[in-house]
Amino acid sequence: MHVIVIGAGAIGSFIAASLAEGGADVTIIARGQRLEWLERHPVEIESEGGRRIVPVPVAAWSGLDRPVDVAFLCTKARDLPESLLALRPLLAGGGTVVTLQNGIEAPREAARMLPGAIVVASRVHGFFEMSGQDVRHVGVPPSLSLGCIDKGARAVPAIVSQVLEQAGIRHTISDDIVTTLWEKMLLSAGLGGLAAAQGINAGQVCRSAGGEARLRQVMEEIAALARASGAKLGAEDIEATLRFVRSFPESATTSLQRDLQAGTPSEYDALIGAALRVARARN
Known about the structure:
This protein has 283 residues and is α/β, with parallel strands linked by helices.
């Protein structure tokens, strides 16, 4: 069984290295400087538990010459359509794709562009970032929450859990992945968007004058969109997310903020843009 990880950023590199350590036949798809680096070096992951150095086979799309049974989609949301188009002729019949993008639109986009594929949506728990060519993991132990968007249509294939278990990646199966994805939108779109709009660190939002009230209002709007979309988000979910945000150090930033500050393409459209698209669709 051939497994590929599409995207060699922080999360993709972590997933690919863990799969390789677990004995999976895995290839990581990379491009540009990251591809050139991984052709000569192993994946290196720094965490509180030390440093892991893991050789992982790497290829560009043009160098992938055999069918794919399971694909973990770890690109930024903006790169998803291009990746799905490249994957389509390589995915084995009845193959499985797992989306790891922030936001709520990636699973349905994958299902639309890969008819016949089994699409598994996932929410990533954990904080990863690139430090040069190294992956840094800090904070909570990484884990995935998995589920299929179309309730009752399909269950998460057992092979996905088997691969993750062999890799030592903690995961749970959600019976309501739509709600799970919208829960993260409270944080990624709500906090990420507001912090970027105010021009302050995410960890400073609740400490700024009126900041927590504004954040609560934004989260209430997102929760209303979630409920209109069939998710189950209420006041208790907002309060739980606010408690989590209050625990952030003042220096904490979101990946959205870091991309905007660096002037690199960001996930603004996949997060704030997605919320606005749902608002228009639901009136």
